[in-house]
Amino acid sequence: MKISELKKGQKVIIRCKHKTLLVDVNAQVAGVRSDVVLLDLIRHDGQVVDFSSPNVQIITIYEDGQDMPKAWTNCRIQRRTVDGKQYHALAAPKNSVRVNRRKVERVVLNLPGKLKVSNTPAGLDILVHDLCVNGIGFQSPVKIEAQELKHLYIQIIDENREEDEEIRVEARMVWVKELKDGGFFYGCRIANAEENLGYYMADKLREKQE
Questions:
Q1: Which of 135, 143, 134 has the alpha carbon at shortest distance from 176?
Q2: Rounded distance, CA 52 to CA 10, Å?
């Protein structure tokens, strides 16, 4: 699939990676001109995002809920004015690849954690089952309200880490399964993470190999 085959109104995820820092932002397709996809201007905290830094790797991900996600790597995004209106113009040098998130190496943690959503300001006790650079799976004793599932803030409590090195991620639910013995298991995509997540994953994978 070429990136130019995306349709107006479809939503994509723009994944920005710099060293071990990873941030996802949502974008909507406004139209296609030649092989360039026009996106509605992407804003963060009210400001238009600048994607021009050469040190940032940009990956575009499209999920239709019916097939494995499709991803375009080495993308470029620039501001462009078309018919008097400004857009983010997205281009990718190659066709998409299908991304099977299950193939990404993950570690089983089975560690306690805290889940923070708006109706549980003190944090809900959860069990963090597994973790990879793209996703996280956890078990919750109660069902999370649908309106909260796009912004889940998770802290992993690992006694082997210093207190000032908390592992925290922002995640969005991909699927949920009700457990027979009570509770719910959530599989989530990591939308935002602090830089120390990469180092934490590296340490856990090293321990796994020893």
A1: 143
A2: 23
Check residue 151 and give its pLDDT.
Answer: 82
Average pLDDT, the chain: 85
- Assess contact for 173 and 155: CB atoms under 8 A: no
Instruction: Please give the span between the terminal C-alpha atoms of the chain, in angstroms, as a whole number.
Output: 41
pLDDT value at residue 3: 92
pTM over 0.70: no
